[in-house]
Design goal:
The chain is mainly alpha-helical. Helix content is 52%, strand content 9%. The chain contains eight helices and five strands, in the order ααββαβαααββαα. The strands form two sheets. A three-stranded antiparallel β-sheet has the order 3-5-4.
């Protein structure tokens, strides 16, 4: 390559590197920072990931990610193929005709106390594609009223009425399929009826 050719190559390479560096600074630094700052100013909850905090300001979850509730005095979310691990979102990938899937569903029905006369809502039997769906249908929440009220010493009718009022005030989901956020529901449950001690819950379980 001639001296003139080398100079041309160096000039073009330097121009390309300047454009790359400028693009990196703008698109990788300035632009995200601008959008992040704008988001925090305009929609702070959404920009932060809809984080949920307790009375002391500690982060206890997110409205967008399901949490594992196993105590019988709380409403339970949909099952999760990843055991509610937010770093490993995914489904079971089992086909509809899988014997393993059928066994899981039968076990879930037995655990929830489903019967032909009182069938378990389908969202309590099936995991979502991510395994982290934070919502239940109102019907699935109402199905659990008997267990929750029994373990909290509440009247089932009163708890069901409160649940419908609470869900109706939020208007989540489609018009014909109302949804409830499970974490939000359980927090509201404690606020309305108090948080039962673990020992009391264990005593009720042992008495059965």
């Amino acid at each position: 390559m001639s001296a003139k050719g080398w100079r041309e190559w160096i000039r073009e390479t330097a121009a390309a590197l300047r454009i790359a560096a400028l693009s990196l600074v703008i698109l990788g630094g300035v632009y995200p920072a601008l959008l992040g700052g704008l988001g925090k100013a305009v929609v702070p909850s959404s920009a932060a990931g809809w984080l949920v905090r307790d009375a002391a300001g500690n982060i206890i979850g997110s409205e967008l990610i399901a949490q594992k509730f196993i105590r019988p005095d709380y409403f339970w979310p949909r099952p999760s193929a990843v055991d509610f691990d937010a770093s490993a979102a995914g489904g079971s990938n089992l086909p509809p005709g899988s014997p393993d899937l059928a066994a899981r569903v039968r076990g879930r029905i037995a655990e929830l106390g489903g019967t032909p006369a009182n069938p378990v809502p389908v969202d309590l039997l099936s995991a979502s594609g991510s395994g982290l769906d934070p919502h239940l249908t109102l019907a699935a929440a109402e199905f659990q009223v008997g267990r929750v009220s029994s373990n909290r010493g509440l009247d089932p009718g009163s708890l069901r009425d409160w649940l419908r009022t609470w869900a109706g005030a939020r208007r989540e989901g489609r018009r014909n399929v109302p949804l409830v956020n499970v974490l939000g529901l359980n927090r509201a449950l404690d606020e309305r009826f108090g948080r039962p001690p673990v020992a009391a819950t264990q005593a009720r379980e042992e008495a059965r």
